Amino acid sequence: MFTAHLTPDAELRPLEPWQAEEFAAHMDRAREHIRPWVGPSFVTTDVDGARATLQRYADATARDGNRIFGIWLNTSPVEPVETSPTRTLVGGVMFVEFSAAAGTCEIGCWLEPSAEGHGLITAACRMLLTYAFEERNLHRAEWRCRADNVRSSAVAERLGMTLEGVLREAWKLGDTFHDKQVWSVLNGEYRTA
Question: 157 Cβ partners below 8 Å, 6+ apart?
Fold first, then answer.
């Protein structure tokens, strides 16, 4: 199975439908924190919803499309992350869109509050960009976020992305419309950064 180490205490690996119960438990911890920043279909409320979300990504992956990966953090101070029984799913990254034919992708992320501030999202997104540009030779990667999501914009900047513009009132949450930023990095820019 594919596993990549983000830090000595954190790993990145695919999230699959058989992990629906773990994903649902994670969503219970993260739901209210991430709800303003992610799409409503992603914020599941039970195991069936979690399984449906993971199955959508599994089906898309099978078609060489969108993909989803979880970030597991070791909460044991003495055991290595790969053998620790105290690994906890704390967030993840995904290709929200992935088209080899078009040469483009969009990256997204989410994280529990307890795991913020450790560089996990930036490290995981770098792995996705490396895959997209070096292994798949895509031309362009995008990042879209609410304009008031300072943490998300900071990740895009750390990844070397350029803010291309703002889509006015393009993000609806409840009855309120928010502005959406569009960031991108091109293959050649990323390789030389």
Answer: none
Please state the φ and ψ torsions of residue 9, each to the nearest 5 degrees: -110, 5
Residue 193: DSSP 8-state = -
The percent of residues above 70 in pLDDT, for the chain, comes to: 94
Answer whether 144's CB lies under 8 Å from 106's CB. Answer: yes
Phi-psi region of 138 (alpha: psi -120 to 50; beta: other; left: phi over 0): beta
Please tell me the pTM assigned to this model. 0.91
For CA atoms 3, 54, 138, 64, the dihedral sign is: positive
CA distance 190 to 105: 14
Residues 71 and 29: beta-carbon distance below 8 Å: no
Q: CB under 8 Å to 41, separation ≥6 — which residues?
A: 53
Helix (H, G, I), strand (E, B) or coil at 85: coil
